[in-house]
Structures are given as C-alpha cells and as structure tokens.
Design a protein that fits this description.
- The chain is of the alpha/beta class and about 500 residues long.
- The protein has helices spanning about 1-10, 55-65, 80-85, 90-105, 125-150, 205-210, 225-235, 255-270, 325-330, 365-380, 405-415, 430, 460-475, 480, 495-505; strands at about 20, 25-30, 45-50, 70-75, 150-160, 165-170, 175-185, 190, 205, 220, 240-245, 275, 280-285, 290-295, 305, 310, 315-320, 350-355, 390-395, 400-405, 415-425, 440-445, 450-460.
- It has a five-stranded mixed β-barrel. A five-stranded parallel β-sheet has the order 9-16-10-11-12.
- Helix 2 links the parallel strand 3 (about 45-50) and strand 4.
- Helix 2 (about 55-65) packs parallel to helix 5, helix 4 runs antiparallel to helix 5 and helix 4 packs parallel to helix 7 (about 225-235).
- The two termini are about 25 Å apart.
C-alpha cells in the first residue's frame, strides 16, 4: 500500500503542487512557470537579502546561494543560529542532557551495578560544556556561509525601501545592503507578563534560566508549556524544588489529552509540583526571596508562594519592531505577525517573511522549511510546507512527541476514527534498559485506515516521531506501518505494535 501511495502521488503530479496548511488555514499553490534568475547589473545588489540569521534565515540564505542567487544575510547578534542555537533549543538540550546524566548517576546507576562514593554538581563545568557546544555550532554555520558564498553582515538591519536595508553594524558603522528580494526572518522574543519585570537574575526568562550560576533551592515556573517544563526539568533534576504555575486547566494545552495526563503524572513522580487554573497577581522582590501573590484564574482567595528564582515562560512574540516595516508599508496583525500569501510574500512586492514572524507554529524546524520553500519560490521553483505535519517535541524525560491531530481535534471535526496504543512496558528494548515508561498512540481514519495523528511518550520519542511524520506525509495507513519490518530489539517496534493495534491487534500485549 505504501508503494502504491508513492506511485499514485508521482503519477498524479502531487509532488509538483504545494500546500501550506493548518487547522485554521489551508493554502493551495498552483504550479508556476519557471522564472529566470534576472541578476541585477550592479555588483552591489543582491538577488536575496535575508534579515535574521536564525534557523529560518540562515537556512534560507544557504538555500538561495545553492540555487545560484547572490545572497547576503544580516544578523544583529554577531553569532548565527538565532535564539534557537544561542539561547534556546541547543543550550537547553545540552543542559537537559547534562542534568539527566547527573540524575541517572545519582538515582539509577547503582541498580545497574555502577557505584560511586559521591556524585557532585559542577554548575560552571556544565555551563562550559553548553557554551562550547553553542560556539562550535555557530562557527559551523559561518563555515557553511563561506562554503556557499553567502555574504554575512553583522548588525541590526532596518528597511529604507522595499529593496534597501540600512545596517548599523556591530563595529559601529552604517552600511546599505540592496536586494531584489528581501526576506524578513527575525524570529521571536520572550513574551513578558504585566507587572513582572525580567532582570535575568531572580526573575528570568528562558535565556536567564540557561545561565544560572547555582542551583536555586526553590524555582517557580510561570507557564506550563514546552519551554517551561523543559527548564523546570533541568533544575528539578539538579535539586531545585520546582513549582509550575499555569493559568489554564492543563499543562501543554496543544498536547493530546490522554498523553498529557500521563505526562503530568510522570513529572509529578519526578517531584515537580503543579498549580493549575492559577494566575499571578503580584510580585514582590523587595527582599532576598521573591514572593508571588497567586489566586485562582476564575478569582478567589489569594495565596503567597516564595522562590529564589522565578522563570517567566509565557510564550513568545514575533520580533518585528524596529525593522522599519511601517516605513515601507508592510502590514502586521494585532500581535505583530506579518500576514503572507501562499508564496511567503507580504503585501509589499519583493518583501517576504518566514518563521516566527508569520502565522504558524513557532518552531525552528518549521522556520527552516519556510526558508527553503520561500527561496524556491523566489528562484522560480515550487516550495512545500504543510503545517499540519510539523512534529512537536518536549525534550523532558520521558520525551513527548507528536505529529498530526490529537484525539480531541479528531472528535471536534466529526471524523470517524480508530485508535491503537502500545505501552513501552511491552517493548523488549525499553525493558532491557530499564526505561519503559510511556506509550505510543496512533489515530487513523476508520474508513480508510489513513494515519492522521501519532503521539509518543517515551525515551527518545523525538527520534521515533519522524517515522510517523513520513507516514502522514505520504498518506500511509496504519497497516502500512505495521507491515514494515522494524529491527529487533528497538524502541521503534512500539510504533509498529501501536499500528498493528490500530487496524488489527498488537502481538506483545
């Protein structure tokens, strides 16, 4: 069936069409004629200028250069990779790994016959390893720029016209960069909360939480989303007493409900505390201890919670201010996002936008896909991004990963569906390494057996989810997955078993 799907898509020309979709928005692209490169006659004019060197921006710049377009990338930080690489995805994963190693050594190694007299935390060394990883990767991107002949300008760029960007360089100079096509890829910034001032010392954003010099005795996390839970996990493993305060009734509201409940129980077993349906009404930093005044989201009696450090993790906002967008007439919505059409074009000809500054999931890998598709359109080719098939991962332990629709969304859409589940307790690899918490859940259309959602909670779920993403991309059925031979013993066999349970019956449960 999988090969038949591939043949059908090839025969019908589906690879020559492009779809960007979300639950609220679906674009259909028509095949366009191939355009010429049309190089400018002036040697100082670029075919493509990218403002922002994060995952979307630097990938767009490299792809543009690979397509033969003269390209310049402008980045104000002075280090490529954006928030993700410098103060987000990469350093957080470094600390998640380091803290997991410490926690395993302290609580589980003896069970495996590995014993120590004492296990200590060296926060400075941990931070040093994180910083080295970041530095190595940012320099690696600079190397890719040189390899692909992308011009790199370090400084803050703002529009003078739809084809000109003024750059205040980090060296104190000002230069003008000209381009026929300009891509806005400036990413997002931390979203603050009214009445709470982030000082990155005691009241910190995720940036400050990645640079603490000691383990706080008590840590309060405001916001139970992916970032808050990941950073809470880091410091909880290292010894902090962590309390998560969330306005909503659930953690990670976008997660499948059944998975979410198991995930919260897992975090609670790790001694993380949760105060749901709770809002922060006041913050007192007048003493050495930070005091938060809390009350139920719906109103009611107030209480006070104390901490050494408070992490504000209430989401992110598009970074579109200070770019001179109003000067050239680029429209933004009420929260600062830039509306774009199916080819990532703004309302101003020759100006494009990708990544966190446009609607869609604020994820590094989504921004990368945006960047590649955008420059493919500019080069006269066809691009492809499907926002319904962008995987999401929470890198705690166990990890939680998902792609496609949740069971709640399927019910709301009125789709008749089947569900197959398989617990990691039935997986031989998970049992052999004594890490068998979690499950795989697959949702498929009842009539066609087409997989429409996959949700995984287990060790390395973030790696297992891509089999599911590929299945959704090629409209595979659960039987397609089940009849694909999976190596034994592997964690991925749990995906096969869940697929078997979706259309028939699992073997090992």
């Amino acid at each position: 069936m999988a090969m038949a799907n591939f043949a059908r898509r090839k025969a019908t020309g589906i690879f020559n069409s492009t779809v960007i979709s979300s639950d609220a928005l679906r674009y259909s692209f028509s095949l366009s004629s191939t355009l010429s490169r049309g190089f400018a006659s002036g040697s100082d004019e670029n075919d493509v200028v990218v403002i922002g060197g994060g995952p979307g921006g630097y990938v767009a710049a490299i792809k543009a250069a690979q397509l033969g377009l003269k390209t310049t990338c402008i980045e104000k930080r002075g280090a490529l990779g954006g928030t993700c690489l410098n103060v987000g995805c990469i350093p957080s994963k470094a600390l998640l790994h380091s803290s997991h190693m410490y926690h395993e050594a302290k609580t589980r190694f003896a069970k495996h016959g590995v014993k120590f007299d004492n296990v200590e935390i060296d926060v400075a060394a941990m931070m040093g390893q994180k910083d080295k990883a970041v530095s190595t990767l940012t320099k690696g991107i600079e190397g890719l720029f040189k390899k692909n002949k992308v011009t790199y300008v370090k400084g803050h760029g703002k529009f003078l016209s739809p084809s000109e960007v003024s750059v205040d360089t980090i060296d104190g100079d000002t230069t003008i960069v000209k381009g026929k096509n300009i891509i806005i890829a400036t990413g997002s910034d931390v979203k603050g909360l009214p009445g709470i001032t982030i000082d990155e010392k005691r009241i910190v954003s995720s940036t400050g939480a990645l640079a603490l010099t000691e383990v706080p005795k008590k840590l309060i996390v405001i916001g139970a989303g992916y970032i808050g839970l990941e950073m809470g996990s880091v410091w909880s493993r290292l010894g902090s007493e962590v309390t998560v305060v969330e306005f909503a009734p659930d953690i990670v509201p976008s997660m499948d409900g059944e998975i979410r409940k198991q995930f919260q129980r897992s975090l609670e077993k790790q001694k993380m505390k949760f105060m749901l349906k709770t809002k922060v009404v006041a913050v007192d930093t007048s003493t050495d201890i930070v005091k938060l005044t809390l009350e139920p989201s719906a109103g009611g009696d107030q209480s006070v919670l104390e901490a050494d450090v408070v992490l504000v993790s209430a989401g992110r906002s598009p970074f579109t201010s200070g770019l001179g967008l109003e000067k050239i007439g680029v429209e933004t919505d009420k929260i600062g996002r830039i509306p774009v059409d199916s080819r990532f074009s703004t309302n101003v000809k020759g100006v494009f936008a990708i990544g966190d500054v446009i609607p869609g999931p604020m994820l590094a890998h989504k921004a990368e896909e945006d960047g590649i598709a955008c420059v493919e359109f500019i080069a006269g080719k066809e691009g492809h991004v499907d926002y319904d098939k962008v995987p999401g991962v929470c890198y705690t332990h166990p990890e939680v990963a998902s792609v496609g629709k949740t069971e709640e969304q399927v019910k709301q859409l009125g789709i008749a569906y089947s569900v197959g589940k398989f617990p990691m307790l039935g997986n031989s690899r998970a049992k052999s390494i004594d890490d068998a918490e979690g499950l795989v859940k697959i949702i498929a259309e009842k009539e066609t057996d087409k997989v429409i959602g996959v949700h995984i909670m287990c060790s390395n779920a973030g790696e297992l989810i891509h089999e599911a993403a590929l299945a959704l991309t090629y409209s595979a059925s659960s039987e397609d997955i089940a009849r694909t031979c999976h190596a034994h013993p592997t964690l991925s066999e749990a995906v096969k078993e869940a697929a078997m349970a979706t259309y028939d019956k699992a073997i090992h449960i």
